[in-house]
Amino acid sequence: MGDLLYRMVRDDDGKILNLASREYSKCIENYLQPEDKFLTCIFGEWKDGKIIQKGTQAKMARGEMVRFMAEREISDFEEIKQFDSLGYCYSEAMSTDNEYVFIRENLSYPVRQ
Protein backbone atom coordinates (compact mmCIF):
# COMPACT_ATOMS: atom_id res chain seq x y z
CA MET A 1 0.00 0.00 0.00
CA GLY A 2 2.90 2.40 0.72
CA ASP A 3 4.03 2.28 -2.90
CA LEU A 4 0.69 3.52 -4.27
CA LEU A 5 2.02 6.98 -5.17
CA TYR A 6 5.07 5.42 -6.85
CA ARG A 7 2.86 3.16 -8.96
CA MET A 8 0.64 6.08 -9.96
CA VAL A 9 3.47 8.29 -11.26
CA ARG A 10 5.57 5.60 -12.96
CA ASP A 11 4.83 5.17 -16.64
CA ASP A 12 5.05 1.88 -18.58
CA ASP A 13 8.67 2.62 -19.51
CA GLY A 14 9.68 3.17 -15.89
CA LYS A 15 10.28 6.88 -16.45
CA ILE A 16 9.57 9.30 -13.63
CA LEU A 17 10.24 13.01 -13.89
CA ASN A 18 10.81 14.40 -10.42
CA LEU A 19 9.64 17.99 -10.05
CA ALA A 20 8.85 17.63 -6.36
CA SER A 21 10.68 19.20 -3.46
CA ARG A 22 13.29 17.06 -1.72
CA GLU A 23 11.00 16.01 1.11
CA TYR A 24 8.19 14.91 -1.19
CA SER A 25 10.41 13.14 -3.70
CA LYS A 26 11.41 10.68 -0.97
CA CYS A 27 7.88 9.25 -1.17
CA ILE A 28 8.82 7.94 -4.61
CA GLU A 29 12.55 7.32 -4.22
CA ASN A 30 11.96 4.73 -1.50
CA TYR A 31 10.19 2.46 -4.02
CA LEU A 32 12.34 2.89 -7.12
CA GLN A 33 13.27 -0.27 -8.96
CA PRO A 34 16.63 -0.86 -10.72
CA GLU A 35 14.98 -0.56 -14.14
CA ASP A 36 13.38 2.82 -13.35
CA LYS A 37 14.66 6.06 -14.84
CA PHE A 38 14.20 8.73 -12.16
CA LEU A 39 15.13 12.19 -13.43
CA THR A 40 15.25 15.14 -11.05
CA CYS A 41 15.16 18.76 -12.22
CA ILE A 42 17.14 21.29 -10.22
CA PHE A 43 16.37 24.99 -10.58
CA GLY A 44 19.01 27.20 -9.05
CA GLU A 45 21.37 30.12 -9.22
CA TRP A 46 25.15 30.05 -9.33
CA LYS A 47 26.56 31.64 -6.18
CA ASP A 48 29.94 31.34 -4.49
CA GLY A 49 30.96 28.39 -6.65
CA LYS A 50 27.85 26.28 -6.13
CA ILE A 51 24.21 26.00 -7.12
CA ILE A 52 21.79 27.53 -4.67
CA GLN A 53 18.08 26.70 -4.89
CA LYS A 54 15.74 29.38 -3.64
CA GLY A 55 12.49 27.81 -2.49
CA THR A 56 9.93 30.17 -3.99
CA GLN A 57 11.74 30.57 -7.33
CA ALA A 58 12.34 26.82 -7.64
CA LYS A 59 8.67 26.12 -6.90
CA MET A 60 7.60 28.60 -9.58
CA ALA A 61 10.04 27.04 -12.05
CA ARG A 62 8.69 23.54 -11.36
CA GLY A 63 5.19 24.81 -12.11
CA GLU A 64 6.38 26.47 -15.31
CA MET A 65 8.08 23.21 -16.32
CA VAL A 66 4.76 21.37 -15.96
CA ARG A 67 3.07 24.02 -18.12
CA PHE A 68 5.91 23.84 -20.68
CA MET A 69 5.59 20.07 -20.94
CA ALA A 70 1.78 20.10 -21.13
CA GLU A 71 1.62 22.78 -23.83
CA ARG A 72 4.14 20.89 -25.97
CA GLU A 73 2.87 17.39 -25.06
CA ILE A 74 6.40 16.41 -24.05
CA SER A 75 7.05 12.83 -23.03
CA ASP A 76 10.77 12.54 -23.86
CA PHE A 77 13.23 13.68 -21.21
CA GLU A 78 15.52 15.15 -23.89
CA GLU A 79 12.87 17.66 -24.91
CA ILE A 80 12.69 19.29 -21.49
CA LYS A 81 16.22 20.62 -22.00
CA GLN A 82 14.59 23.33 -24.14
CA PHE A 83 12.87 24.84 -21.08
CA ASP A 84 13.86 28.49 -20.72
CA SER A 85 11.24 30.21 -18.59
CA LEU A 86 11.74 32.62 -15.66
CA GLY A 87 15.35 33.16 -16.70
CA TYR A 88 16.33 29.50 -16.27
CA CYS A 89 18.33 27.66 -18.93
CA TYR A 90 19.50 24.07 -19.10
CA SER A 91 23.16 23.63 -18.17
CA GLU A 92 24.76 20.70 -19.96
CA ALA A 93 27.96 21.18 -17.93
CA MET A 94 26.19 20.91 -14.57
CA SER A 95 23.70 18.15 -15.50
CA THR A 96 23.99 14.37 -15.28
CA ASP A 97 21.90 11.49 -16.63
CA ASN A 98 19.78 11.53 -13.46
CA GLU A 99 19.72 15.25 -12.75
CA TYR A 100 18.99 18.07 -15.17
CA VAL A 101 20.19 21.41 -13.85
CA PHE A 102 18.56 24.66 -14.92
CA ILE A 103 20.41 27.76 -13.82
CA ARG A 104 19.28 31.35 -13.85
CA GLU A 105 21.50 33.36 -16.11
CA ASN A 106 23.88 35.65 -14.24
CA LEU A 107 27.27 37.23 -14.76
CA SER A 108 29.27 34.86 -12.56
CA TYR A 109 28.49 31.63 -14.42
CA PRO A 110 27.88 31.22 -18.15
CA VAL A 111 24.85 28.93 -18.48
CA ARG A 112 24.97 28.13 -22.18
CA GLN A 113 28.00 25.86 -22.44
Q: What does the model show?
A:
The chain has helices at residues 4-9, 22-29, 55-72, and strands at 15-18, 37-47, 50-52, 88-90, 99-104. It is of the alpha/beta class and 113 residues long. β4 (88-90) and β5 (99-104) form a beta hairpin. The longest helix is centred in the middle third of the chain and has 18 residues, at 55-72. The chain is globular and about 45 Å long. The N and C termini lie far apart (44 Å).
Name some characteristics of this structure.
113 residues, globular, single chain, 24% strand, alpha/beta, five-stranded mixed β-sheet
Secondary structure blueprint with pairings:
Elements: H1 4-9, E1 15-18, H2 22-29, E2 37-47, E3 50-52, H3 55-72, E4 88-90, E5 99-104
Parallel strand pairs: 1-2, 2-5
Antiparallel strand pairs: 2-3, 4-5
Rough shape? globular
Count of beta strands: 5
Quickly count the helices. Answer: 3
Unreliable spans are none
Largest sheet: 5 strands, mixed
What's the mean pLDDT score? 88
Helix share bin = 25-40%
Question: How many angstroms does the end-to-end distance come to?
Answer: 44 Å
The sequence of SSEs as H and E is: HEHEEHEE
**β-sheet strand percentage:** 15-25%
What is the CA-atom radius of gyration, in angstroms?
14 Å
The structure class reads alpha/beta
Summarize the structure.
The protein has about 110 residues and is α/β, with parallel strands linked by helices.
